[in-house]
Amino acid sequence: MTDHAVLLLQAAADTTRAYGEFPLIGARQFIWITAEIHLMFAAFVLGVPMFAVVTEAIGIFGHDDRYDRLSKEFTRLLLVAYSATAIWGAMLVFGLSTLYPRFWAYLTAIFAPSMWVYAGLFFFESFTLYLYYYGWDRWKKGRAKLWHWTLGILLNVWGTIVMFIANSWLTYMMSPPRDITPTTDPTSIKLWHAIANATWMPINVHRVIANVVFGGAIVGAYASYRFLAATSDEERAHYDWMGYVGNFIAMSALIVLPFAGYWLGREIYQYDQSMGITMMGGFMSWLWVIQAFLIAVLFLTGNYYLWIGMGRIPGAERFQPYTKYLLIVLVLGAIVWGTPHTMIADSKELAAMGGSHHPFLGALGVMSAKNTAVNLMILTTFLSFLMYRRANKRPVVPWARTGTIIQGAMFVIAAGVVLFYGIRGYFVEAIVRIGYSVYQVLAVLSCILFVTVIDVLMGRGAQSLGTIKWGKMPPRSQYALFILAVTFTWLMGLMGFARSGIRQYWHVWQVMQDTSKYAATPALGYASKMISLCVLIFLGLVAFVFWLGGLAEKSTYVTTEKGPRGGHVGH
Amino acid sequence: MWATNLKIVGIVLGTLALYTLIANKIPQVQSEVPQTLTLGANVTPEQLVAAGEKVFNGIGGCTTCHGLGTRAPNLLTDENGTGPIGARCGKREPGKSCKQYLYESLDQPTAYIVAGYQPIMPVMTKQLSPAQIWSVIAFLESQGGTVDVTASDIPATSSTSTTSPTGGGGGGAGAGGLAGGATDPKAIIQAAGCLACHKLDGQGQTIAPDLTHVGSRRDAESIRKKILDPMSSIAKGYEKLAGIMPKTFGTMMNAAQLEALAQFLAAHK
Fold first, then answer.
1. Which among A7, A273, A513 is the nearest to B243, CB-wise?
2. Where does residue B36 fall: left (phi above 0), alpha (psi -120 to 50 degrees), or beta otherwise?
3. Which residue from A429, A447, A454, B10 has the highest number of Cβ atoms inside 10 Å of its Cβ?
4. Interface predicted TM-score (ipTM)
5. Distance of CA A400 to the CA centre of its chain
6. Pairing of strands B37-38, B160-161
């Protein structure tokens, strides 16, 4: 049977109501909005419990009640957020079953058992959450507290499994196993065979890390709002500290995220080179320029927040002159990372450019330059954090000077390795060059790991130059946290479009074609409007959730004579 | 507090507006669904060129390698001082016209490998319909040369075609299979163009694994699977060429042909 015949058969099958239509906005837009907002809430209710369980652990093992209260404050928000997740999930399922019935029937024929498990786990997850939240004050001390903390871990386990199951459905759409063809009877496909497809695990890992980033960013935005609305210095100090913790967690996880994305990209290429080329060099190539811009905003804003934060730390003055150099490195890195290279171009554009690459910018747009830029940006951000961390401390260990020299040497070596392989990459074949990125990443991660270990050891018994003046932050620092949250959310929408869009006019890549009137994949301009709309709806609803949280109960910050401890919070 | 709320709303809306504006300012490229290509008997060179440009930039997937890096020679721009493809195609092979050279390059890409490039191009006559192939040739000729493709070059039975990017529709395959449905394995091999990449009994190219003793490495079931899904297993040493073999042979042959071919190759111990 030719593909022509397959298409005709498929078109004939379409006549038996393959597609429905949604009034006013259309079927695809309805699915786009419900899927995206469901995903954003899902990321929120998966990311925040990770945040909550970690902060509760710090509270338990660090004997610091503030972290415990912080954890509870966010768990309270989860209750409403869970409902929102379920509502949008239900809208998505009803949308799929009524607007894309043939496709939905195909998916359920393969994945039905996993959908039952999914629903069951959601039930467990919800009741674990109720126990976790409502049992907070009852199981507050001793062994009972540890059991309570275990509930938090269990909540994360259920949530992660739920996400892994949902990921299997969407990754199957991207990368169905190669032995599955358009004529394969879906009921004959083994469930595990469909689940364990090529992109399932890379997406799982990428989303777990991204959820941590997202949870941290939303926590930061919440704290910044409460900071701006605070009526007392004590309250302002509490939410300043909370914003710092949220931002710290988001930025720390963000540093690892590009490596998980790199793995996912590699798996896509290995699964189907044409799909990879469509993603990076085809009609989606401009998307990566936008992504580079967003990442640049994240790095610059995250660092900006840290630099402003140094203003509230006694002793930070000695580091502040260096921030302008860090800014230069970040800006240059962002420019290089955003340089286009293999853009899709028509004949006129190619002729105007004088070739397939820009004569000058082409050299900066290659992977060698981009990998070098992003690794140097990560190192720079880490250096910013290190300066922030050490701002109010003077090490007293006898080897402090040697330790600092070793730390400096590690930065120099890591930057040297990154630059060396970046430059050498221009003189070797592509397959060798790709391998170099591993050395660059290892150099940066090793530097971060060992410098941190040295810093922790060196900070033992360090002389304090004064406590952090929590709450002494200008409002612009809090607006920076808002920009971070909006940018993270928009980036999530953009990457969702990239992941879904590379299937182009296939519901299931090269297995089930989209023959609806919405089959063409829209250009980035249209997609950006949809993403902005989704982000706006999501943030509006999150603001409502926060407002409800405020109505239900007073903030968990507790007025004390001392106020939040300055000390080494988050250090 | 209202002033603060307004500021927050302003920052959120401003940030969203900025990102949306930038995304709308860059070149807008939409991924289209394959469309029917209809070329009548009176098709003009201009219509052929226009149709060919769409195939070249769209479902032909040509820009994946040509003009986007170092994978293949530039066709639309200068290549080492020889001009764009329309200006140089007539000089590439002595005695061959531009039209002949381009058709053979699409039908047997390994016949003329430009120095410095790898033989990675798939057989395009198996990927595209004859109407699409000839329109692409017309478009390439228009890049610095003279278009001499006419409707008479296109087989009458295939002036209309719908082709998905995964191929099919061309190559002489129909509902009855390749080579008019013949079950003679040699006729199938000839019609499918297997020897453009594989060697068999001393004939053909050595780009892909030699099939002369394929039966000692694979049984009939394995060969059948490999034809239906070329990515199901990659021969050792050929990993770099994974994905080059067209995925469409399974849909171009009928069941009897597939079985005959699998048994024939499995007997090559």
1. A273
2. beta
3. A447
4. 0.86
5. 36
6. antiparallel
